[in-house]
Specification:
By secondary structure, this protein is α+β, with helices and mostly antiparallel strands. The chain contains 9 helices and 20 strands. The chain binds zinc ion. The site of zinc ion has 5 residues, from helix 2.
């Protein structure tokens, strides 16, 4: 396709983003190495990927349009089937997806416009795909500012403002104050949300702000020196909030409480869990010391094996054993890959034992000549054998 020169494609979405059925003449069709077809028309309703927004999908005649791209004003439809040059085709833009993009892109203009004109914070990045919309801002944004701007956006939606598209002359551009993301070639296209925003943009927008439905901040994170905000508008925002509401209702039912009581219930549960974990650790430490007592008077290494043993109790038990015997003593706590351990030897020589464990069982450990601790990727039998 690269070697052929096509005329600039007439972009029908520029004047009417709601026109999703159109007829056009096929100017060229070329198969790619991976079996797709690059189709150029004389005019199209398909918005190509640009300015951070994914390209439209839909149908051209009987073939699927998988993606739409643009280069030097020539719009290419990436399709899964061929069309013949010269034939007239009917195009159908996937309206559900296009309208979702319109709701979200227009919502982002409200959000970025309010931050720009009312807070003096510039937008410096934009990404809109099927699953996510993010907008980047040059400065850090506090939770309070995010909540305030979100509410202002929703108020602009409820006011159902008429969105205006214009192409100012070069003379008019001299005096016009507008935001620009340096994203567009060709004639300057200005999208105005009256009283809220004036911005250069090539994308399809809703006619009235009421169509945006809802503007919701999903999350915000530090990005470069500023903030990356994930936003959801329209049906996306509705679907997300409906799902979250379903989840919190489910939690309320499982706690037998009201939705508003769920955070307090979770806090109580966490506190209780913390308390029980402490009690359990104490009980395990007691069992460990009872088992250690049973080893008194026995010959050979005094080794104890258990599960979920607290570090402090393991160390305390080994110290206790070292007071009653000269030889090797240790406690091993089961892990996913083997055992954590604390080993001690009142008479010294731990360094040689540790070296042996490293060599024979690939243990990772550290310590001094009387005590060592670490982990061993081996089972109880192998450890007992190595230490016998
Ligand atoms: Zn835009």
């Amino acid at each position: 396709m690269a070697e052929r020169v096509f005329p600039v494609t007439e972009a029908l979405y520029d004047t009417d983003p709601y026109q999703t059925v159109f007829t056009a003449v096929v100017l060229g069709c070329e198969e790619t190495a991976d079996g797709q077809f690059l189709i150029v028309l004389d005019r199209t309703g398909f918005f190509p990927e640009q300015g951070g927004q994914s390209g439209d999908r839909g149908m051209l005649g009987a073939v699927n349009v998988l993606d739409t791209q643009v280069k030097a004003g020539v719009i290419t439809h990436i399709c899964d089937g061929a069309l013949s040059a010269g034939e007239t085709v009917e195009g159908h833009v996937d309206w559900e997806r296009r309208f979702d993009f319109m709701q979200n892109h227009s919502g982002e203009h409200l959000f970025s416009g309010i931050l720009h004109w009312q807070y003096g914070i510039r937008n410096c990045g934009f990404h809109l795909s099927d699953s996510v919309m993010t907008a980047d801002y040059e400065q850090p944004l506090s939770d309070d500012v995010l909540a305030e701007v979100e509410e202002k956006c929703c108020r602009a939606v409820w006011e159902d403002l008429t969105v205006q598209i214009s192409y100012p002359s070069e003379e008019e551009q001299q005096t016009l104050a507008y935001r620009s993301k340096k994203e567009v070639d060709g004639a300057l296209r200005i999208v105005t949300f009256p009283g809220i925003d004036v911005c250069a943009c090539c994308a399809p927008h809703v006619k009235r702000t009421g169509e945006i439905g809802l503007v919701k901040v999903v999350s915000a994170m530090h990005y470069k020196k500023g903030t990356r905000v994930t936003l959801a508008c329209g049906e996306r925002a509705f679907a997300m909030l409906a799902e979250e509401h379903r989840l919190i209702k489910g939690l309320a039912v499982s706690f037998s409480t009201k939705e508003s009581e769920v955070p307090a219930q979770v806090a109580r549960l966490k506190e209780k869990n913390h308390e029980l974990t402490g009690q359990l650790a104490e009980a395990k430490a007691q069992i460990l010391s009872l088992e250690a007592e049973k080893l008194s008077g026995t010959e050979g290494p005094a080794l104890l094996f258990g599960e979920d043993l607290p570090d402090a109790a393991m160390r305390r038990t080994v110290n206790g054993l070292m007071e009653t015997r000269e030889g090797l003593c240790g406690v091993f706590a089961k892990t996913d890959k083997g055992y954590r351990f604390v080993l001690g030897c009142a008479g010294g020589g731990m360094k040689e034992v540790a070296a042996k464990l490293r060599q024979m069982l690939h243990a990772g450990c550290g310590g001094d000549d009387r005590m060592a601790s670490g982990s061993i990727p081996a089972d109880e039998a192998a450890i007992r054998e190595a230490l016998s």
